[in-house]
Amino acid sequence: MGYGGKVTERHRARKLRAEAWTLKDIAAELGVSKSSVSVWVRDVDFVPNPRRRTRPPRPSSLLVRKLAEIDRLDAEGATEIGRMSDREFLIVGAALYAGEGFKRDGQAGMANTDPRLLALFVTWLRRHFEVDEVRLRVRLYLHEGLDLEAAEHFWSELLRIPRSQFRTPYRAVPDSTIRSTRHPLGCPGVTYNCSSTHRRVMGLVRALSSTDALPG
Residue 178's pLDDT is what? Predict the structure, then answer.
């Protein structure tokens, strides 16, 4: 997924959940499926508040049908994919790297705003390669005015990389002529400096594009 993703919606969902909004209300407010909200806020403490009076407007019938279809297709996708074997996960990670990973020699890495994809990449790297944890590095791209402390804490917890291994962040100055969207958690780049690891990764990437790997 590119720079956009749904990081803004996820951040907003977590904030609303902490304010005692129900999953249904959050989904209607953000125009996303209830199942997505459930995943985003599963670790947020929730205390029901019957006195909360602020309610989002009742969603239209079109939105209700859309969200129901998303829930159905999410369930179908989860059933169809199931739990990946090690080999399947190796292939999925190589495909992700082919599209999103750094291609310069000597450095295996990836930058993305989508927490799920970046967590998948780091999990894949640790699973299929001998990783020296102290050599993992993170550099965060974050607009000025946004909470650097919160963003670094989030990515450190998610990726299981200590903040002591975060490089000096790049604080971007908002420029309305380039992009109006500012991602509250920024865009982190994870790098692992190891020539042999990167070359092994690129060997998998090249194998994916080989005609020998295509279905007969």
Answer: 57
Q: Domain boundary residue among 61, 81, 101?
A: 81
Query: Which tokens in the block code for residue 68?
Result: 């129901």
What DSSP character marks residue 30? H
* 59 shares a domain with 157: no
**Is 30 part of any domain?**
yes
- State the chain's maximal CA–CA distance in angstroms: 63
Residue 126: which domain range? 86-213
Where does a domain end: 46, 81, 116? 81
Rounded alpha-carbon distances, angstroms, from residue 58 to 20, 26, 52, 80, 143: 18, 12, 16, 33, 34
Domain match, 44 and 114 both = no
* Total domains in the fold of the chain: 2
Reported as half-sphere exposure (CB side, CA atoms, 13 A), residue 78 has a value of 8
**Residue 198 burial (C-beta neighbours within 10 Å; 0-12, 13-18, 19+):** buried
Helix/strand/coil percentages in the chain, nearest 5: 50, 10, 35
Model pLDDT, residue 111: 96
| Mean pLDDT for back-to-back runs of 10 residues, the chain (216 residues) | 58 86 87 85 76 61 84 92 95 96 93 94 97 97 90 94 96 68 85 96 93 77
Pair 74, 114 in one domain: no
Which burial class, exposed, middle or buried, applies to 50 when counting CB atoms under 10 A from its CB (0-12, 13-18, 19+)?
exposed
Q: Are 71 and 33 in contact (CB under 8 A)?
A: yes
